[in-house]
Amino acid sequence: MAKKEETPNLVACFAEFKELKNIDKITMINVLEESFRNVLAKMFGTDVNLDVILNPDKGDVQIFQNLEVVEDGTVTDPNLQIGLTDAKADQDPDAGIGDEHTREIFFADFGRRAILTLRQTLQSKILDLQKEAIYDKFKELEGELVTGEVYQTWSRETLLLDDDKNELLLPKSESIPGDFFRKGETVRAVVSNVDNKNNNPKITVSRTSENFLRRLFELEVPEIHDGLISIRAVARIPGERAKIAVESYDERIDPVGACVGVKGSRIHGIVRELRNENIDVINYTSNPSLFIQRALSPARVSTIRIDEEEKKAEVFLRPEEVSLAIGKQGLNIKLASMLTGYVIDVYRESDEVQEEDIYLDEFKDEIDPWVIETLKNMGLVTAKNVLALSRQEIIDKADLEESTVDQLLQVLRAEFEDLPEGGDEAAPEA
Known about the structure:
Elements: H1 2-15, H2 25-44, E1 50-55, E2 60-70, E3 81-83, H3 84-89, E4 100-105, H4 112-139, E5 145-153, E6 157-161, E7 167-171, E8 186-195, E9 202-206, H5 210-220, H6 222-225, E10 229-237, E11 241-248, H7 255-260, H8 265-273, E12 278-283, H9 288-295, E13 303-307, E14 312-317, H10 319-326, H11 331-340, E15 343-348, H12 369-377, H13 383-387, H14 391-398, H15 402-414
Parallel strand pairs: 2-3, 11-12, 14-15
Antiparallel strand pairs: 1-2, 2-4, 5-6, 5-8, 6-7, 8-9, 10-11, 13-14
Helix pairs in contact: 1-4, 2-4, 5-8, 9-11
């Protein structure tokens, strides 16, 4: 009777782990068998002569012990040997010396303590398996879009739970400026990093990643999802602006038009998801010169000079186009550089070509490089570009100290001694 009373506890032990997610049946059986063998090995000193037959669907287990039949009185290890008389008495009347005698043993006979040990062993192994399964699952999902429900928000990160209650961490640094989440709200992001330090999976997601923008376009634009349009490059300044270069493999499809949609229907959803981040969609081309010109849109480039080895581009524009190329807070030119992979210098194109002019870079030994960069960002690329302005204009527009401007003008004018000191103000006497 004791055997029957204890058996339900063993069935419950199986049932607890029967419906585990992310763990296949074969792995589950192997873990169960290993757990049984570990407990049995501690009881019998070895498990080499034990056969463990599991049926997790029914929640039962059969354990058979294989013993060598020896002469009565010569048994040295009862866990490996059995006397001839005992073997015949144990439902094996034909047993002989040297034969193998198999008898069934009942785990429940070992009492509650043995079952508790088994449960603890199983719990430990199953927990490790679950963690490995979670890690493997999300490692394959790196760069892919996932959805989670906001469970809790702290100052530095937000905890999301996916449909399987897996924890996803969204750090503040990976959130778009303007992101504000309430408990229970559904949030989309991409898996940016998965690690398994000390067998403790940590899944980090991101909304600032370039891949997030890629996945949103794949979701909203069927032609991208179907492979008819390819996203060739992406550049983002999260929450501010983004540029994306697309290419069509079907001449009948306009990739830019397909991505934007009728009256912006497709791109509007993406813009809302990105907290009103402005998105420029351009046609990709393998021609670097043309690609850079498109990347600088809405500015119209007059001429361009490219250094393929240094990955640099000198772009010349009419004065009214310079501010468009640079953009508000320099975002347009920064994104164009990120998108194309070229360092882009923007220069103002003069109406009159002055062959005797000198580029400002030639004065780096006499003028601080940061001063030269400040002037170049204004579209002033040559000495005469600078000298065409008055002293006060340079001070106001470049936001430089008067002494710095005076030294600058002195150096530049020294190269053109026959050039009269122009402008509405002369430099004060030293």
